[in-house]
Each structure stands twice: as structure tokens, then as C-alpha cells.
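Quick one - inputs below.
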Amino acid sequence: MSRFMDLKRGDFMDDLRKAVEKNMQEFGFPVTIDERSGALQWVDMRGLRLRYIVCIENIMPFFEGMRRGKLVTTKCKKCGRLFFPPQKDCPACKDSEMEWVELKKEGVLETLTVIFVRPPSFATYDPYTVAIARLDDGVRITAWYKGDPQKVKPGQRVKVKISRRKEGYLMYELVPVEG
Amino acid sequence: MIFSFLRKNHDRFHRNIRFTISLNLLKPPNSRKTYITKNKQEIMSENVAIIGVGHSKFGTRKDVNLPELAWEAIKPALESANVEQKDIDFYVVGNAGMWSSEAAVPSLMAEYADLAPKGSMRVEAACATGNAAIRVGYTAIKSGEADVVLILGIEKMQESPNPTIIELIGRFGSYFWEFENFGLTFPGYYALYGTAYMAKYGATEEDYAKVAVKNHYYGAKNPYAQFQKEISIETVLKSPYIAWPFKLFDCSPITDGSAAVVLASEEFAKDVEDKIWILSQGVGTGTANLSKREDFTTLPSAAYAAEQAYKKAGIDMDEPWKYLDGANVHDCFTAPEIIAYEDCRFCKRGEGFKLIREEQTYIGGRIPVNTDGGLKAKGHPIGATGVSQAVEAYKQLLSQAENGRQVDIENGKWLTHNVGGTGHFTYVTIYGLEKR
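Output:
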């Protein structure tokens, strides 16, 4: 006797796909039964994969800086306001005359967390530590902290390092100050 | 039929009817408001009232689709307000969406709930979507553009599997500078606050756990709550880490749910018996990036919104709790409830964790907070949360809350604090039994 496949915990999406395939063949619809409520569900046939294309043209020097191992950002030529992340326009002066300046790659760690439950798009990474540090120039930076999170506390000094990610691209990170 | 064959093995729980609020059903029909259309000269309404409310059961609602879930709130809201769809001038739908299939929710409701062709709008302000929707209705009535506005907050998060939701909700920060490269999750953003707060004031993970224990204590008394079960501090402390220092039981759940309120002008509401008034609203906006903020022990948008709300309502900012009977604050995680105590000035800076330690936010304490279970135990259907808080203000102020969680109403004022994103948007609303 045939029946709809029930979903068990485990690889939810794989099981779901299998159940839907089977139910579609046998009963004619991409449906499944919700395990807990027993309610009938139609499983969308139209998946969606999102990938944004973001303009970085106007902050290009930031990426060029990282290629040279430097952290650079914008500073308003008129009022001297320092921006991080870098931005093209100064909202105070309503002026877009910016200069690119190099930031000191040291500062004080202000807070941190360890992300145990990761988004699927970060599934290839082990739990990672995200921290916010205040750089000596005054701006704050959010980045991964590469070091033992149990051995660091808010208030301790950290450095910024540029390194290559698993996916192959360059990104800044925070590391402990030796000694 | 094949479907009925299947159901033999499954108990289906139709909770729809059992769990909807029908507060004013017993009212005789002649108490129905006979509203005489005023000269269509638009008159600014000095005050705005909530004249009816509705609330679905929150939780995993695989038993209904989106419009069916919405109807569970709309129907009792219309009934308790004693109005028909034709009386509604405008309606606002708070729905963050993305995880659910339908995008044009107001139109879907026009069709399903007979609201066409009345004007409508969908509102999104992350987790503050619900109160943002109320804001739109409130200002529409204040401006004289509308007399009766229906506000619906709805979210059907579980149309997507949990990993997809974790992926989507992590993007509520600054997409490029926080999510794309550093994979922050929603618990992660607030954990950065939780860590900073502990470091600055010496609060502990156990203090955070106490917030969860309190909110589950009240959730257990709320038939609309997702989790109607009390928990112990050990349950929280032993649960697995999600984003250190937050564990599973520090986090609000992924929830399906709907809530609705009917707002009315002073003129329309004047003969309505059961009503509360919106005394004031304060709205604040914070930076996209956490790194653009000075301090991780306060949400500047919330502190600003609370100040605005107190100022407009004429409430003493030094001891506002003396004017309030209770509050709903945005406890998406445990630490933010404590930070909310401080942003709302229920205590001095750095003393929020002492309030929970001393059980001052239970009924009988300085100010009862989240007596409906909060986001933590009642559940957090993003777009519905702010509206659900308004429903709670209505029920509490009119002493209609369930046994064991009704606050003694003495001052006749209730505060709600609804935060969107990582402190991106905060709406603080003060409700009262008496108009201003």
C-alpha cells in the first residue's frame, strides 16, 4: 500500500526532496505531510538562488589597499571626518572631496561573539569569532577574530591583518597582539 | 481521496477557533456604533484609540496558509471593535516576508478578507514592522485622512526551513560589512551587545537566563504563546550555544502568527466601551553597522524613541515606571530585554541586570515586563510582534488578560518597545485608558 512519505529530522531538505518526488509520482502533486501537525503542504517547485552584484567602484582604493596589506579609508578634505567603512560622500559638508588615508592597524577589542549556528552560506567554516574593535585612529571595525576567543576579553589590544579566505579572496581580520 | 487516506494516521489540531480572541462577542448588536458621517471635511483627530483586537495562536502553524492565519486575527479584531469591512477606511499590513511565498499581502487580504477596494500599504521595519504598521495607521487618523484603520501584523516564517531563515535574518544587519564577509547571524549581533554588557557591568549568563525563566513563566499562562511551559535556569544554562554568550534558551523562536488591531479616531471611538488610547509614540533609527555605534550596552534608537514617547505623553523621565502599570519590551534575546530596561529608563544605566536578579520585572515588582511571555516564550513572528504588543496593552489595561498574568491596573498606562534589526528602528508606544 502506498502512502506519502513522512519527514524525519536529519537532512531536512534532502528528505523533503525525496518525499516530494515520491508523492508527485504516486499521487500527482508535489506535496508532503508536516510531521508535527499532520497538515498537508505544497512544496514550491520554484527554487530561488540569490546572488547580489554590489557596486564597489567608488571605494576601489579600499580593495587596492588590502592587496598591499593596508587598511585604507576615506577622510573628508573639508572637515577631516574619518569614515569607516569608507564612503564617497561627506554628509556633514555635503561634499564629495575625499582623501584616502591609511588606518593604524591596531586597536582595542570592544566586544565579541562566537557564531556556533552558522548560515548555510558559511557552513564550510567551523564556528567563528566575530569581534568589534576600536582602532587607534578612532573608527571601529567589525571582523573575524583569529585567536582563542576564551583567551581574549573586551579591553585587550588587537591588530588588523589581511589574509586570504578559504574561498580565495582577501579580507581583513583581527588577531591578538603578541606578548 | 488520497489526502484523507493520509490523514488517518495524523491527528489534526484545528486550533483556529479555540484560540482566537472574541472579546466583545456578547455585546448586544444595538451597542454597535451608529456613526454619522461627518462632513467629509477632514477633521484632525486629536486622539487615536484601539477599539478592537485579535490574535492568532503563535507557533508552528503548518495547519493554515498565510491568509487563513491572518483571518484568525482579523475576524476577532473586527468583531471586538464592532465594525464591518465597509467601515475600514484604510488598512496596513506589517509583514517582513522573504521566507514566505506571498509578497502582495495587502492585496491578498483584500481578496480573502473582503477589504477591496479600500486603500492599503505593506510596511517593513524588520522586527519592528508591527509597530511601524501601527505608526502608519496612527498618523493616518491623526492627519484626518482616515477614521478607522485596520492594522494587521503577520508572519509565516515557517514556509521556509530553518537554515534558510538563519541565512535571511543574518542579512538584517549591514549586508556587505557585516554579513557578506563575517557571517553574522541575528543572535550574533545581539550577542555582541550581550558580551559588552557583561564586560562593562559584571552581569552573568545566569542573569540572562533569568529573563528567559520569567518570560516562560508568563508564557505558560498565555494560551496564544508558542511555548506554554515554564523552564528553570538550568534548562537555559545547559542548552547548546547558538552565538556565545547566547544559548538556545536565550533566543526567541522562529514563529508563525498574526495579530490585528482596529484604530479609530476620537470621534468614532467616543461611544465605544472597550478601548484604549495611543498616548504617544517615539520612533528612532540607528546605524546599519554596529561598528558605527559608540557603545554596545544601549540601543541609541531605543533610548531616543523612549525619550520622545515620554516627552509627548508628559511622563517624568526620571521615574517613568511610576506612571506605568507594565510594559512589553523587545526580548528577541535575553540580554536585549535587560538593555531595554535601561533604554526605557526603568532603572539607571548598568542596573538592568539587577532588576531581573531582584525579580522587579515580575508582577508585583517595580514594573512587570512581558507578562504575555514576550518574544521569548510567546514567539516572534517578525511582522506580528509589534501588533501583538498592542493587543497585550489592550488586554492588560482593560483587565482582560488570562489568570495569573493580569497586572493590577492602577495608573492606566502601558508601554511597548519594539525594535527592528540590530537596533535599526525602535518604536516606543505608550497606551492609556484615559485619553490625553
